[in-house]
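Comment thread on ticket #2218

A.B. wrote:
> Attaching the input chain for the structure job we discussed in standup.
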Amino acid sequence: MPQIAVTFTFHSGVKRHIFQNARLSGSWDASGQFSNQWTQVPMTATQDEIGCDAFIATVSFDASQAGTVFSWGVVADLAEAPNSWVIATEVPDESSNQRVRTFTLAQDQTRQDYWFASGRRFGAQKYYTPGAINPGIRFTMWAPHARNVEVVFAPFDPASTSSTGYIADDGNGVDPAAPVIPLTSSGGIWQSDPASPVLANFHDFMNRLYMYRITNEQGQITYKVDIFSRNQVGRGATNPGGAHFTGSYQDLDGIVSCSVVSDSDLVTEDFNDAGIHKQTLIDSDDFWANEYTGAAKPPRNLADLIIYELHVGSLGFPSTASGTFADAIAFVDELALLGVNAVELLPVLEYDGDLQWGYGTALFFCLQTSAGGGNQMKHFIRACHQKGIAVILDVAYNHFATSDGERTEWGYDSDPNIAPQDNLWYWYEGQPADYPGDPSGGYLNNDSSGYAPRFSEENVRHMFTSSAAALLDGFHFDGLRVDLTDAIHQNNTLNANGWSVSRANLYGIKFLRELARTVKMVNPSAFLIAEDHTGWAAMTQPLSQGAIGFDAVWYADFYHHLIGDGNYGNNYAKLLKNAGYGSPGPLNMGFFAGALLGTQYDKISYHENHDEAGNDANTERTIVTAVNYAPLVGDTRKYAEARSRFAFGMSALSAGTPMFLMGEEIGAAKWFKYDTFNSNKEDLLGQRTADGQFLFRFYQDLIRFVSSTAAARSSSLDVIYTHNDNRVIAFTRSDPNPALLVLASLNDSPFAQGYFIATDYSRLPTGGWREVFNSDSASYGGDNVGNFGATLPVNNGQIDAVIPAHGFVVFEKVP
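C.D. wrote:
> Ran it. Output below, let me know if you need it in another format.
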């Protein structure tokens, strides 16, 4: 009987060995005919052409089945989940979360490949030919609308200031002595010939500058960056706009410059070896061999984290240039001294220009070249890990760069002025004729900084999920914070009229599920945090229930109730803002109690973040809000610091995972804006022993207390008392029984003679309760009003304790 043999390959696409005992499963029977009872066969483990784990099986199909649509997938053992279905990608149906691959059996379709991650498939990558001593190089890219694609090179001499690293629109800048590498297309995937003798040795191409010369859908010749680039030559912010460029690559914006051939498996041994031609490269396994030192390992449980939100560009005081990874690695000891065990970096993937926070990302596999590039970032992460500090990266997957993006995603293989519906990376509804007078009406807005990505296209979703895999696998990031997920799953609207596009929202949901699956397969203990303001419970519900599967969401309502600057109505407590006016009236502690209770449910609790520190309208730093812009001198600063201590205390002692913005620990007071941060840098090191010394000591001690106290890190919290007029709130923390009691007040005067609280006896157990922390300690600049470490009695749910002005005391249940 005639047979058609089909070879199935599951490519891991990552260097980690995360899949074991793989089995092919498909909709056929033992005779190779279609069956609803799926057959499972073992797969052979091997290394594929890019040097990553792969699994292969060949199935002989009955040739009479030609034209039949078959489905398949792979089952494998993961470290913490045996017998897992390891196809992360869902079917192209917005209403389905099925994860199967399909193909139509045909005589000329004898290979089926699935790439779990494609970060090492696309781009300029090592290619292993059987029997070859050294790897060759293969260029692979996606451009389904292109008529022709070639790789061209630019000359480069790092010793010459005239090395531009730029190719103009007319081809000026192309090295005429270098080979032009033709690519051929199969299904829109363009690839160089791996058998070409010119490409036989990868290391011959190391550090070469290249671009794709694309003849687009309209026959125009354009020059484009490699979307999967690991390194860009540009180190500045200049965009020549396609014109001839005679300046230096040091001034050139990285997202319009040439890409650089790099080896992802090598890392510089010397941190300062940051040039294009690196001299101290070593194998990445050797580099990471001393990643951890002794017992100082980063936490693996979200509840154990205390997160420091850090913008690398705001380091480097007193320089007004953007901070670099060199500044970041010099700051690691400061983080360790402060006591935080996690740092969340604002985006540092290659973004447009230089003066921004990093949310204009264009290249999702490349670390910001002007800051020092991927090698220096790896050094920073290793240094953090050696101090027991986890590193979480903020990623913006809801839009692409909104300026200087003409050589990256925008119009990649088709002219968007002629055929916007073929603008490959961007969602476009319908045809240009549907929007007479303004063809841009077909793009989607999503309340982020640019048009929505084309999440209906598997290759677009897969680029983002593969970026996440590369960050965890190659860079050893401990987790991701995903920017504004509302934009992905809820806010998609048509540019023409603002109408909601539900199909785009559904594909956004599909992408978020795929992202969560990918992250958790690469590293089950990786943290996955969403900036999500919708209150949608599915964000943190399990993938196994068809939900999104994130670990936690940012809790903006907590911030608005606790701090309350910005344009927010009276449905928020706005405790600090109202206290800062200086009037003695009541505060809505009841409203805040509700927010405090809400921290029990997978929340990141913060009293300050990058947006709310001067970037959003009418927002400012915590210490400024605390006294309504009054000059921070004398008693006014004392009040401001006391109220600031209250704010961090409520966050740190909540049931959520606490986070705060860089500089809060020394009373940073300057506006933190995306475009003026360079002129508003704060002296984070100098202030630690100057005006900020009391706050710094308070942060140190409270962080140490929370980190070492199980009840303070538990998910249980009970608000047992509030009084609006007296501005008092009391709550307990449990592990598993009530073990901590927090009494807090924003009253302008202390309750120095005691404050009587009565509640149900079951909510505050009878016995002795010892004061173990006092925010009003003289060592923090306070007045030492408190209970002086005394053990106070609780009977029938009643306690009488001293509470300082705008401060808090913490009691621990005596055994």
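A.B. wrote:
> Thanks. Noting for the ticket: Residues 502-522 form the longest helix (21 residues).
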